[in-house]
Specification:
The protein is an alpha/beta fold. The protein is built from eight helices and eleven strands. Strands 3-2-1-4-5-6-9 form a seven-stranded parallel sheet, with helices on both faces. Helix 1 links the parallel strand 1 and strand 2. Helix 1 crosses helix 8 and helix 5 packs parallel to helix 6. Bound molecules: 2-hydroxyethylsulfonic acid (8X3).
């Protein structure tokens, strides 16, 4: 994989696992974006073990359009080179009914999961169109396929991601730019549950009685998608652990 990849939400979970796997697979340059500079720098230091790899860590809050533009401004030449964009940044906040919902949580999810994805895509996609090549992978969710009680706004943002993947595919396929998504169910080794339950470790303890996917499982799928020959576009991969059959059907029979 002699490519240049940009990954959002690279400081943890699926983004971090994808960065590690891409590094191992020999990508030429990794542009790692996330909010937390210290974590990005730690990951960059770890990946500096790959001598041929150039790592460009860029810290910004994807929810803030002007922060996105300002942070990316000095990196125009790196951005011009991006062959693979992984729109991974996303989160869930809250797990209640709409009539009791928290507006600030809604805004955080909509701004990150939908608007943030659009801001980055609007910057990278025209460069891919100009080069007539590139590959965009969005990280969707089973929550983008089916709603479940308490999921409401999070599900709505992931339904939006699902729609944007389809729309981008239609917009870009005649320009040689591939578009696809992976829609995972429960994934451990991420901050998903802790963020959803506002740092409450007890409530976030939702993986103790079944084996969910691991971040690396999803990274491997992303890696497979982007390493297909140029005539192959994998548009959508819905993936859950063996013990999960839908967002709310989980066989809590113990961990493997
Ligand atoms: C993560 C999966 O089911 O908690 O997107 O929404 S779920």
């Amino acid at each position: 994989m002699n490519s240049v990849a940009l990954i959002t939400g690279a400081s943890s979970g699926i983004g971090q696992a994808t960065a590690r796997l891409f590094a191992m697979k020999g990508v030429r340059k990794l542009i790692l974006c996330a909010r937390r500079r210290d974590r990005l720098e730690a990951l960059s230091a770890e990946l500096s073990a790959y001598k041929e790899l150039v790592v460009v860590p860029i810290a910004f809050d994807i929810r803030d359009h002007s922060a996105v533009s300002t942070a990316l401004e000095p990196f125009q030449r790196d951005l011009d080179e991006v062959d693979v964009l992984i729109n991974n940044a996303g989160l869930a906040k809250g797990f209640g009914s709409v009539h009791e919902g928290n507006l600030s949580d809604w805004e955080t999810m909509i701004d990150t999961n939908v608007k943030g994805l659009l801001y980055i895509t609007r910057i990278i996609a025209p460069r891919m169109v100009a080069r007539r090549s590139g590959h965009i992978i969005n990280v969707c969710s089973t929550a983008g396929k089916e709603v479940y009680p308490g999921g409401n706004v999070y599900c709505a943002t992931k339904f939006a991601v699902d729609a944007l993947t389809k729309a981008l595919r239609q917009d870009l396929y005649t320009y040689g730019v591939r578009v696809g998504q992976v829609a995972p169910g429960h994934v451990e080794e991420t901050e998903f549950a802790l963020t959803r339950f506002d740092g409450n470790a007890e409530r976030a303890n939702i993986y103790s009685d079944f084996q969910p996917l691991k971040a690396k499982d999803v990274a491997e799928i992303i890696c497979f998608m982007v390493s297909r020959p140029p005539h192959v576009n994998i548009q959508d991969v819905l993936v859950m652990s063996s013990q999960q059959a839908s967002p709310s059907l989980i066989h809590r029979s113990g961990r493997s």
